[in-house]
Amino acid sequence: MRRVICAVAVVAALALAASACGGSDTGTPQQSVAPGDASGEVTWWDTSDATTEAPAFQELIKNFEAKYPKIKVNYVNVPFAEARDKFKTAAQSGSGAPDVLRTDVGWVAEFASLGYLAPLDGTTALVNPEEFLPSPAASGKYGGKTYGVPQVTDTLGLLYNKELLKKAGYDAPPATMADLKKVALDVKSKAGADGLALNVDAYFLLPFIYGEGGDFVDVPNKKITISSPQTTAGVKIVEDLITSGATAKPALQDSYTNAETAFKEGKVAMIFNGPWSNADNLGGKVFKDDPDNFGVAPVPAGTVKAGSPVGGHDYTVYAGSKNLAASYLFIQFMASTESQAAIAGKLGLLPTRTPAYTAPEATANPKIAQWQKPMESAVERPWIPEAASLFQPLVEGYQKLAGGQTATEPMLKDVATAYQGILKGWSL
């Protein structure tokens, strides 16, 4: 689910963002309201991790309510895996939808195309849009209008246990997919741990696919490329990692938690994951007392390039909200440089506003700088309404592949057939 690239290195993009994003896409924001005069009630569905991330966002809400004493925020933490369907159901019925939703970047175009989101151009929600990094800014646009204000951005990196790699004879993480296999096998034979754990999820297949020059789709030409030679070559790397024993036997259910737990407990040396996992990993027994043992590197390169998907979340407003003015002010506060810097400092999540990267709270967290290199190879996803629906067929196919029930070629052909039912009029 990616195309083109405007997600340059986060730090490098700081210098480019103004020219890449521009400020002409939006109208003049509505006249600001004095904090003491603003009133209303906002229900926010937060899809962040309830244990490691939510408390930091709840602290921001307290600060918002202190600034706007006549606005009450009803905070609801909704599990990420349930949020997309739950919001669509509520929006379609016209009952129970939140005023503001923390929306995955891949959902914005879909929700906007269905008429579920309020456009934000010219509102107080969208302030200084020229400060946003290009890819996060692009994720919130659909049909020439802005429907999402970028909250955080992310990508996947190779996370590694420095001590386990050193036991296997390596002072640095693998830089290529070929080296990834070799290092993983050496860890298994020399360090008493598994070398690599895979998350059996479509999003986590993308570094392998991008590395061989493949992708899910070719948007400009409306072509399905999930079964192309390039994509096939990328998935075959994963198949080989599994069959060779370079990776631990993948868990077919709840693989994310299994891989994450094994990594932070020192049972596996390497996993693919994003900056959202920083706090969780640093709380694990092998990193809690030795945070320097936690390494972050770009995903290994395939034969074509190193490539990892752009992810992240946007603030969106339900089109049927009865509290639009208060919702816009809430987003303005939560997406401000100050709020983003605070979240970066506490959680290691990557800001979407360029000034936040130089704010003292953000620079105090060393993980922000460590994610600069992985972000340099981040590949932008296609912001099309069908984007989120492309994951499920591939997840189901990946599970069969990881379970030894199929091979790469027939699996991808089945996925391509499923895509034809989703992308009407697209060619193979």
UniProtKB/TrEMBL annotation:
Arranged from A to Z, the UniProt key words for this protein are: Signal, Transport
Please state the span of the N-terminal signal peptide per the UniProt entry.
1-20
- GO-annotated cellular components: ATP-binding cassette (ABC) transporter complex, substrate-binding subunit-containing
Highest taxon listed in the record's lineage: Bacteria
| Keyword flag Signal | yes
Molecular function terms from GO:
maltose binding
Q: Which GO terms describe its biological process?
A: maltodextrin transmembrane transport; maltose transport
Family, similarity comment = Belongs to the bacterial solute-binding protein 1 family.
Designated name of the protein: Sugar ABC transporter substrate-binding protein
